[in-house]
Design brief:
634 residues, alpha+beta, Phosphorylase Kinase, domain 1, Transferase(Phosphotransferase), domain 1, Lipocalin, 14 helices, 25 strands, 27% helix, globular
Length: 634
Amino acid sequence: MTPYDTSPPPEPVPGDDVGGYRLKGLAGQGGFGKVYLAERGGHRYALKLLPLAGAGLGAWGERELLMLTKVRHPNVVRLLGHWQWPDRAPRFLVIIMEYVDGQRLDVWAATENPSAHAVLRRVLGVARALRALHQHRALHRDVKEANILVRGTDGEVVLVDLGVGSHEDMSRVTGGSLPPGTRAYLSPEAWRFHLEHREQPDAHYRSTPADDIYALGVVLYWLLTDRRPFPLRVAGDEAAVITQRPEPPRVRNGRVPEELSTLCLRMLEKQPGLRPAAAPLVLCVEELLTRDGPDWYVPLCEAFDAHNLTTRPGPGADEEALWFNEVREELPPRRGQRPWLEPSPWSPGTAPPAPNGEARLQPLGRELARPHPAGFPTAGRTAWRWTWVVMMVVLGAAFLLTNREALTPGVNGPTPGLARKVAPDGQPLESSGAAAPPGAVHTPAAIALPARTPKEPAPVTTQNHAGAPQPPAPPAPARGNTGRVLKAAAAACTLLGCPGPQVRATPSPEPCPPGAVETMAALGIDVGDKEAWSFGGGNRYLTVREGWTSVRIVGRDFGDIPNGSVASGRLLFGDRVYGRLTQVKMEGTGRTVPVCFELLTSGSERGLGMEPGDSPDTARVFSVGFLRAVSHFE
């Protein structure tokens, strides 16, 4: 049994030359392809690469190309050319577009904390883009903050990613009762059609211009309140989109002008005929931009400062109390640059932060790395001579101590001078014999011992009757002073370079893919949210290899990611098997989006436990667990 899609996809990487364009980096993912920042002749471009093979991916690329050819407007991304690449045996359709040097709309709003007037300026640009599309009988079908860029030079917006758009002259590509796009922005009529026809495999929802207007209304609602009108977190939440009227933006945020709040509600009307078309919407927004009252020019949200800045709870925090305090009162939305908070001084019982990310044993490392005086042997017989001396002393002490235990039964207390526990920094040495709680002592990497010996069984998480995972029992500590002496021998061997069991280190930290955190937020997934995953084939152990892999999201929808979608990324071997998933292929539409998920065990431990006897190239892991949304890979 092997995981899904174990072979890595053949795709270019930054530094490659694609038809004379040098790829500089991944700019994002949209529709069904990846967008790269590229350079040629000193100018920058956006190159979108769409695979020609796959379930209709070539057809999706042709649709986007046709859409960009038909519509030319300052607020719609500009097409510059296209071809298939490589020249021999082409695998990608390459679409070259203008590079918009700016920010995504959600990032712009979060950092700039705009006023109602500034928000209206950006909405006007999107409305003009939709007017141009609709006049050419084209639909975008995925209007959202992530597909709206705010140019840095003049503040104008550019609508991008027409990959799931449609045109009256195009044939239908998708199947199913839901249209392509992002679930949180789907209109009430789209959800109503889905609920009425989801059991009919041939049913197909036909989008209209009113769907684009509704999606823009969701965008405007978020810009005004920092919240969506209807959060879709679990199955059944879509019923509110059909039946409930959203709370007026001005009620949620008193800084929203009344006229703007009313316009937003008109764009979110349940009946598509009651929403303004794109052309009248442009006129309405232009009219509102003439307002000069002070409430149109104040920031819509409170700014962050040192008194209202909150952080994510650390280890050991009372999550239930934090959640209760969060929902007890509706906090006003906050945006803008976050102030720098000086770190609080460390208190006794906790390890002080290492300066500049250096390990606490760095001074020792520098001392060991210092050049030796001339004539001092640094390796060879002298090192081994010291090794034998230490080993003989320690083993002799172990022999005497073992015989002493045999001559004095029942005496198991600590022996002064032979084995003393080491207290963590800031704590006195032991006076009562009680060890520090697990996790309080930061074991230096140079003398860290394996988590379990090869003979110890792998821990297995079990479920109690209430469904709460029960952590495995910790390994039994070494009994008596002999165990402590042997541990000292192991530490001495480690410091002196004795050969021993090799424990692979934890993989290095790395950032999420560009746009992944913002995409997850747009999909209704917050950092820290979890959902179940499976390699497939039932609950069992299976063999995996380091490298590209995929898992299936199971159980229920993860935000707006449908149940059954496939998340892909890499498995990295260390002291455990770490999974870093960077993209999700949506169930139903086949659309691929960037994400930042890490694999957890069924007990929510980071990384998958390895079994005794695993080789450096393969490992046996359990086939199910949880995945967690993160802001970076630790």
